[in-house]
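Example 3.2
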Amino acid sequence: MDQEQKINILRDVIKIKSINNHEKEVALYYQSLLSKHGIESTIIEYEGNRANLIAEINGDTPGKTLVFNGHMDVVDVSDPTKWTYPPFAAKVVEGKMYGRGTTDMKGGLTALILAFIAIKESNVSFKGTLRFVANLGEEIGMYGSEQLVDEGYLDDVDAFIIAEPSSRQMIITSHKGSLQYEIISEGMAAHSSVPEQGINSISQAMDYINTSNHLFEQARGIINPDLGETINVFTVINGGDQINSVPERTVIKANARIIPEFNNEQTLQLIEQSLVEVNERSKGTLRLNILQNNLPVETPADSDLVHAIHQATGQKIPVQAMMGATDASNFARLKQPFDLAIFGPGDPSRAHAIDEYIEIEDYLSFINIFEATAIHYLS
């Protein structure tokens, strides 16, 4: 496969509008590509036009299982007119391919599948199993990786390479968990001239915010040396219908970023304690709706997988932790320990941005890096 073919494959994938949904079309494209190279794969249905894809190749003898992983969904494009080039045209200009998902993360995922194919066709000797796993729904809900873990598709995995954009400047082996939730405040409507006849849902929500902020002081000072503290941030508030009415219903949304030392369960306990305290003194009611509950993940910085990347690149690339979350949060629910490297082409600052792009040279070089890393790790 020459470079132009590799570029055209990425262009095809970028043109598929898998915005927070419709991943099955990407999965079917990848399945067809694998089939052309004599590799069988399995579509794992989720719902509607959503599916995951799994394929694997086995070495000459038993050994470890390494997974090449990434997600097929992309975030929305709020205003295409602000883009220099149409966000799904995959326009190549001066060595850059522009388009939604080029960096996050179809560039990395396509580099993985091309490395996977290259290993199959090279007939190189290795031990164990190399598995390609493309999942749906990372951007909202992490539903695909959740399904794969729940249904046992990853029970034997020893290591994951997740090709989220990192550039060649860092390898990420740990990150915070993410708890996304909403608090629904139910009051009672009334005319604003007689507020005592109603129950102000906004006031109740503000009481909850103040109470929660106070209780979350308990998490202060509990530090992970790489990940920092567990934090809780209120991000959205929607309440009321018109200016002269006491608001009947208000919804506030928040996102907690979690470390192992102050974990998801402890964080939920603080949220629920806040609810109890506010409900005890409120005339209305407040309730919790959990939107996403993903664990922190912490793996060794000096793992065999990190060493394999160093061998493949010939560089001592620094190992870091990050504050965001990836599908590795669901992988953290697996019973077995595993090595992790979040490492892929693209500048992370371009993810979700207007005029998102990937350097063609970066994309192509990572195909070779992934191929060499797998061989080193499975040797």
